[in-house]
């Protein structure tokens, strides 16, 4: 899968250097805000972007966004460093750097936006750039298909989220997150808002039943998976729910929806993790488990639960990124990721082993790693509950035990035992690929021994989610309590699961796959539906398209006339003279003759009659300029027709030219409607203010006595300029059609 | 005269629509010319009909006499006529060209973009 | 089409038409006429010449490629607009210069308006001739 040769020289090339330097610099920059945020401050900054839509590029930096920003840039720097080796030799490495930096920017924008509309824009930026990243190996069909699946699922959710945002804007009167003062729980729009926002969050964070895209997204190169599925993309939904907790949380629907879906996702995903043979897939499912757990605890919403969720968020990001990166090293060093094959790599890959073990112990929740702290707090929060204690505790327990087993499968078993045959002889990876996993794993250890170090992040983050200041006190171990006992039970259960995982896997692999084939069937259905629809609408016959267009026009005009309730005055024939009647007859006869003649020369002559009739009208009603123009155009028209007719066939040759009854009905309808509208328009008094201005200003301001010409070349000269540009382009286009394509016969 | 004007515009539009619905693209072009004329008349007539007084300011005066024709629709129509001619010429040459390429003026048989066989 | 009478007559007629077209262009600001009408009349003159003497001769009489004339016309019109900009007004604001103007006497009015109308004239002339010549030579 990762058939990419490593090339550590990429680090010294501009693309590689930039890809590491940018996140590193940003990480340092965000770090300087830590003291201020830890002291309980928030930084709000805003630039007006689209003032008329109330879209501002507001930046909101509080504990929650700072935690995310540090994870995004910090892990980002390690991942891009890793990529200089892992993908440095790839022919599209530059493209990769563009995508991942775009993604990083989108993610940062998402967590820093104070305005829901700009948040949505960044949300979509992450959707699109993650699509490009997942489908990075675009030569492979599965990569393309899975990328598209991720795109469609998350973008559909994104649309729901957008609708939710608009409703929030209506309900709260502002799109600024910091400006939503009151909780929206009692607002009549609360339920739709809640459902739409949750739809966006659940698709992004891959909750059951929208979870299937996430394991499929493992088609991405390993560093991408490490980045997207540890700290960033999939945490977007978690971030959103955490961010909206002060305004949307604390209600029954919020509690039960998040707790139920989160719990089901956590348990379902950790069971499915045991089914996988590809260790990357195992990790993918454990990511789902973590997301489910986070959403469940945000749904619980007590101070303790939120604190536990925030701690676990950091824990998970650290160990999950480390493990994904480690898998890349293993894959690269051995040529396989099959859990059944990988054994005894410890001797050949000692550094990788250390990193893997530390990260896996954190994932398993073993002391003295940070993972243990996170799990303890989850348990304590669950046991503290009044409502739903059994469900939350049960889900957390089951998921943690299964996680313990999964950690063994991913990071214990491959390194222990006798070395087995792998496609390539196991060897250690280059340093840029080891740095990331090692740093992250050691960080997990350090934070486990000294959990106080995480408090400056977790405390303000918890406060931001709760909306009020929080007391956060992280510690490794104090007394033997119920949570600690539960932890011990977890280890026992997890160990038992690990020992029997081969049998469990065999049993689980007989269960049918539901979601992914279901997706394919849905896509087939959509494709078939659109094919049928296109076939019905797009007949490929120009006449039918024109017919439909005119029929629609007739319908629209009828509705407009009907709605306007026009009353038509009786026609007044008093001041009509012979010349009026003769022009009428002239034009009507010309029109009729053009419509029904079978001789093209007659048709051209009849068109000329119509044109001259129109010119006569212009003369009769005081428009000499227009009349002259009309006459000259008539001459040119005849010349062009005469020239072209030399090479064109006679009318209607080998065509069925029966009278067309329906066409005639439609034509009469549109003609009648136009006439009615014109009568109605002419009966309404004219607004002559503009004309009056032109008349009054023509001589004094523009020194011209021909008002029409003054309008054309002075008052409205910019319009005229546009019009002559159109004429010139039409001429050049016609010339190109005749000359430019000479010889290009299909 | 308003009623006669509406009658003429209606007749022109009817004839134009009927022609544009034909299979022969040359007939379509005739329809296009007619509908341009109809649109010009419509705009002209909507600006009000004032018999025989062009919007000119007599030599030596600062403003035109009170009952001259409305200059605004005239200016609009004048450019519309020229642009209409540009459109006509372009369409004629397109038709000419497609006849050379496809050997037919039957729009049902001009199927380069959407080949036959799907319906 | 190539009868002697026609050819002889067109020589005179074409000249007259061209002079008339310029006349229409110049008087356009005060009497019926203007760039659109002048350009169309001028084009008619050259088309007449092309019918009588052939396209090649008409192109020769025109000297410049009609496409260049059309584009040059656009340039002239734009120039007239930019002149207003240079004078500190909005784009396409007319600028006037009355040569030899005195009290109660306008003198010879020169303006960017005339320049703009000349641009219109050239565009219309060039565009129409581009189309007609191309089609005639094709057939």
What order do the helices and strands come in, and which of them pair?
The complex is a heterotrimer of chains A (746), B (119) and C (139).
Chain A: H1 14-31, H2 34-38, E1 43-45, E2 48-50, E3 55-56, E4 59-61, H3 63-86, H4 93-112, H5 116-134, H6 141-172, H7 190-204, H8 213-216, H9 222-228, H10 235-248, H11 252-275, H12 279-300, H13 303-334, H14 350-364, H15 370-383, H16 389-412, H17 431-449, H18 455-466, H19 482-499, H20 501-508, H21 515-537, H22 542-564, H23 578-596, H24 600-620, H25 624-645, H26 661-683, H27 689-702, H28 707-715, H29 717-740
Antiparallel strand pairs in A: 1-4, 2-3
Chain B: H1 2-20, H2 25-46, H3 71-102
Chain C: H1 4-27, H2 35-53, H3 55-62, H4 66-86, E1 96-99, E2 108-111, H5 112-138
Antiparallel strand pairs in C: 1-2
Helix pairs in contact in C: 1-2, 2-3, 2-5, 4-5
What does the model show?
Chain A: The chain crosses the membrane at residues 15-35, 55-81, 93-111, 117-136, 148-172, 184-203, 254-275, 282-302, 308-330, 351-370, 390-412, 433-450, 482-500, 545-564, 576-596, 603-621, 627-649, 661-683, 720-738. Chain A: Residues 660-744 form the MrpA C-terminal/MbhE domain. The complex is a heterotrimer of chains A (746), B (119) and C (139). Chain A is mostly helical and 746 residues long. Chain A folds into 3 domains: 10-249, no CATH class; 253-499, no CATH class; 581-646. Chain A has helices at residues 14-31, 34-38, 63-86, 93-112, 116-134, 141-172, 190-204, 213-216, 222-228, 235-248, 252-275, 279-300, 303-334, 350-364, 370-383, 389-412, 431-449, 455-466, 482-499, 501-508, 515-537, 542-564, 578-596, 600-620, 624-645, 661-683, 689-702, 707-715, 717-740; strands at residues 43-45, 48-50, 55-56, 59-61. In chain A, α3 (63-86) packs antiparallel against α9. Chain B has 3 helices and no strands. Chain B is elongated. The mean pLDDT of chain B is 87. Chain C has one domain (4-138). Chain C is 71% helix and 6% strand. Chain C contains 5 helices and 2 strands. In chain C, β1 and β2 (108-111) form a beta hairpin. The longest helix of chain C has 27 residues, at 112-138. Classes of the chains: A mainly alpha (746), B mainly alpha (119), C mainly alpha (139). Chains A and B meet through α22, α23, α24, α25 and α26 of A and α1, α2 and α3 of B.
